[in-house]
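Translate sequence into structure tokens.
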Amino acid sequence: MTIVEFLSARLDEDERASKAVPVGARGRDRALAEVSAKRKIVEGYTRAHHASMRSLQPTLAGAAPGPTRQGEDPWSELLAWRLAVKYLAAVYRAHPQYDRSWED
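Result follows.
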């Protein structure tokens, strides 16, 4: 299981639990907003990962890397997103599917 799959499953669980709380109950809207924000972080990581892999493809094929926007560093962006996703996953450290290698 990847960290994205793990977090997506945990966020699905959190969303279901939040929606089970009656509408108007204290904290329900905030819990749902937090799930939404966390999903956006996971999506950002996924986009950064794909962008980094695309930039690597020409190099693996023996060609020069493709053009990037001026100042763009897909690897630094990926690292920043990866750290954010690891911090999100750490909240679920006690879950049996949590992978301790995500802490490195």
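Note: The chain has a mean pLDDT of 87.
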